[in-house]
Sequence to fold (436 residues):
Amino acid sequence: MSNKGVSAMSKDDKEKTALMPRLRFPEFRELGAWAAPKLEEISTQIDERVGDRRLTPVSISAGVGFVPQAEKFGRDISGSQYRLYTVIRDGDFAYNKGNSLKFPQGCIYELQGWGEVAAPNVFICFRLKAGYENGFFRYCFENNVHGLQLKKHITSGARSNGLLNISRGAFFGVRIPAPRQQEQQKIADCLSSLDELITAEGQKLSTFKAHKKGLIQRLFPRKGESIPGLRFPGFRDAGDWTEEKLENLASRGSGHTPSKSNAEYYDGGIKWVSLADSKRLDCGLISRTEVEISDQGINNSSAVLHPAGTVILSRDAGVGKSAIMEYPMAVSQHFIAWTCDPARLVNWFLYYELQRSKHLFERVASGSTIKTIGLPFFVEMRIKVPSLPEQQKIADCLSSLDELIAAQSQKIDILKLHRKGLLQQLFPVMVAGVPA
Fold:
């Protein structure tokens, strides 16, 4: 059947469709498409020079925003150019045309809570006119609505000073899709409330982590002492902890990397902990690995299959990171593995002892390029232990707290994912051909 009878969507229809968000608050659903004014139409350029005023020279870091130059560079780099810097005040915006992974075409941030500062004159600074809500545009710029359009103005890579060759005219020619002021405010309020919730939940997570850190320090004896500062009621009269060589309490093993030239040694279903799994350490159980090896890889090398429950610790490249194997696994030569004697040492107690001693491992590691802990250290390593029931009580307490921390972290991740989805749906999908 011919398509000639189906009328093509007009340019105006396409533009209106492009400027309609997928998600809209009920009271605004009948208001039609958003407008797309140029930035020069809705803002005023700021060119006020610092002169003799003494203000904090700032820079902008992608993903962070405004930071003092002394903090970012280790010193104030304004020098003789300081007098030519631009005065910006809370509520003003500044565009840093330096490229970054997050903002390849440069980033825009609003100054908040600084009062007034001195911004390098290579920044393009502006102030929104009445009727345009800062909060709404703050989220627009976070969504990189400007970058998608500035792409076409970049004719080459960054200059020697790291700045993109984007002119003021090109920058202020960017169009920013925006609804009426009331809808702008509603969107800004919605996202701001979510940001406040994420911040509050993040503070709660920090509190949990600080509580855990304090508990670990009090549930284990300090250096030179044999009794911890905090003890559970049933063990307060249990006497001193004893100090023993770890090798008397657990069987020590190490690892190996099967020859990578033999393909049959890999992808055989046996989990193999390597440096690629660094991000999975310090989280309690390790259940997955980036690489798996085969029975042939075990049988034809010095690799060893350690039982589930084995406690591992990284000797280098992430020195002191530890975990417990949820399943039988092999490890590379970068790890030490301990299989605890169940009659003498609780594996989770050892895990938390290793966590507590992380600063020690970092201190004893040596090497010019990659810091490594030599095997003799582990041969002679000693720890203090109470009775098995007290070990279990300490491990259970800290494990419960870790579960709480993990649940809180997951809650924050879900909130951040929800926020990301809202950012995508509350704003129109931007394409290179924004309405001219």
Q: What stands out?
A: The first strand starts at residue 43 and ends at 45. The longest helix spans residues 181-219. The domain at 179-237+388-436 is CATH 1.10.287.1120 (Helix Hairpins). The radius of gyration is 29 Å.
